[in-house]
Amino acid sequence: MTMNTGDFQLLATDDRARTGRLATAHGIIQTPVFMPVGTVGCVKALSPDDLRDVHAQIILGNTYHLYLLPGDELIARRGGLHAFSGWQGPILSDSGGFQVFSLQSLRKISEGGVEFRSHRDGSKHFFSPEKVISIQRNLNSDIMMVLDECVPYGADRGYTEKSLGLTARWAARSREAYPPGSGRQLLFGIVQGGFFPDLRTKSAQQVCSLPFDGIAIGGLSVGESKPLMLEIMRHTASLLPEKKPRYLMGVGTPMDILDGIEAGIDMFDCVLPSRNARNGTLYTSQGKVNIKRAEYKEDDGPLDPDCGCYACTRFSRAYLRHLYVARELLAYRLNTIHNLHYYLELTRCAAQAIAQGEFQSFKAKIGAVYDHDRL
Q: Is 269 one of the annotated active-site residues of the chain?
């Protein structure tokens, strides 16, 4: 079946879990999919060849950080982020909205947008919904995200309701700045609403009424308990259109991802596997491994005997431990290769299990070693 840019095709379902395909200007993405985070135009410690070797389908770039350094206009003069970075697969660019949340002491929010001070040099900048679209068009990412406000955990109902209204108005302005059919880039809306189920419903109704190419769930994993996160995630996922891709932003233990897939979510990203790799925490079929532990000093076995990644097929646990303890740069590359390979295989195997009607048994198998991550 021929697919045009923006087409989303469901291939199989298993209860709410689903597998499908999303067509972008730089290739077709098989879902469910995990997207490695490449904040400033690269996934830390990895080359584009490394990403291809672990079968990454799509990576993320960060609009806020790329705007500040090296600058979106510089990137545009070099043919966009694909040409600049050497990664020719699909790219999703976030909106900078999470930085609005995480850099609270450096920003001011108004109806027009967000004024913020650069965390690099203190210089003042202003992000409007239209400006954020302009930056992402310069990046030429395949999927652009609208500007939104991510409210912190603990925000009261009044503030949260006011914020979701602002997010909805910004979403409408973003769509007006880039109407359907304007180009080959896709535009996703974002549902907010904090930790009030009825406000999540209200936000979903507002955002889903606009002609977006996909819908994201934002504002989770911001300090709340795991049970509350799962409750709000499942509630929000149930409100999203069946025929559009659904994206859960920034949530990412292995079990979080499988819980999201179970709820019908298609796309995931998180810094957890790459950040933990640099901290020496590695995900394996037998559970998490802290590679710096002394017990691995003379362990000649592979990190994960069930893994086919470069790190596991070429090197021993003893060598990986040595590299990490010695602070050799190769440690960060090999650890990141392995963790991303694990996450990408997790979603690939989940898709296969859905197609075979065996998702629950697959989830139970992973849960046997990772269920403690729910705590």
A: yes
C-alpha neighbours within 13 Å on the C-beta side of residue 117: 7
State residue 101's pLDDT score.
Answer: 66
Closest CA to 144 of 136, 152, 156: 136
363 C-beta neighbours (distance < 10 Å), count:
19
The tokens describing 268, both together, are 């995931």
Domain ranges of the chain: 8-271, 277-370
Which one-letter DSSP state was computed for residue 371? G
pLDDT tens digits along 80-98? 999 999 999 999 999 987 8
Catalytic residue, candidates 72, 148, 256, 269: 269
Active site residue 148: no
Q: What is the pLDDT of residue 374?
A: 56
Given 14, 72, 94, 266, which residue is catalytic?
94
Give the residue among 258, 253, 285, 255 at the shortest CA–CA distance from 270. 253
Q: How far is CA 282 from the centre of its chain?
A: 19
8-271, CATH topology level: TIM Barrel (3.20.20)
Q: Are 254 and 283 in contact (CB under 8 A)?
A: yes
DSSP 83-116: HHHS--S-EEE--SHHHHHHTGGGEEE-SS-EEE
Classify the C-alpha dihedral 176-177-182-185 as positive or negative.
negative
Tell me the Cα Rg of the chain: 20
Residue pLDDT, tens place only, 253-300 = 999 999 999 999 999 999 999 999 999 999 999 999 999 999 999 999
Interior angle at CA 153, CA 148 and CA 156, nearest 5: 90
